[in-house]
Amino acid sequence: MVSVSVCTNFLGLFLIGRVVTDLIVPIGIFRMVMQSMWGDLPRFRIIKLALKIFHIFFGEEPDLRRVLRSAPWTFQNSFVLLTRWTEDLLLEHLRLDEAMIWIHIWGLPYYCKTVAVGNRLGAKVGIVENVGLF
């Protein structure tokens, strides 16, 4: 008999991923590309759950955290959006349609390189989390 804590720990090593694309996503190629980007991970598996939705299993918690922290990822020029699996997550209620991205704006005149201008330009794309000046 498997204890509840062992089962919960095991199930906690999953991510749910969605490839945002109109193209077909072949599971074998997707698995190979993700593994080449994420490295040779022990007990790593990807299972297709639905059209462009995947269950991604990690053997080690640090590997899962590293992949999630380094998101967003891309596959064939499309975002791969990830969320941590939870016991109450239902596929029909899954909303993987937003990604945090970093935008670098080149060629601005010197006097426009301010936090205020960065916030205004970033707001044209979406919600601004942070503005840095270089």
Structure description:
- With 134 residues, the chain is of the alpha+beta class.
- The protein has two domains: 4-93, RRM (RNA recognition motif) domain (Alpha-Beta Plaits, 2-Layer Sandwich); 102-134, no CATH class.
- It has helices spanning 4-11, 27-38, 61-69, 115-123, and strands spanning 14-19, 45-50, 53-57, 73-75, 78-84.
- It has a five-stranded antiparallel β-sheet with strand order 2-3-1-5-4, covered by helices on one side.
- The N and C termini lie far apart (57 Å).
- The model is unreliable at 1-8 (pLDDT under 50).
Strand and helix map with partners:
Blueprint: H1 4-11, E1 14-19, H2 27-38, E2 45-50, E3 53-57, H3 61-69, E4 73-75, E5 78-84, H4 115-123
Antiparallel strand pairs: 1-3, 1-5, 2-3, 4-5
Structure summary:
This protein has 134 residues and is α+β, with helices and mostly antiparallel strands. The chain contains four helices and five strands; from the N terminus they run αβαββαββα. Strands 2-3-1-5-4 form a five-stranded antiparallel β-sheet, covered by helices on one side.
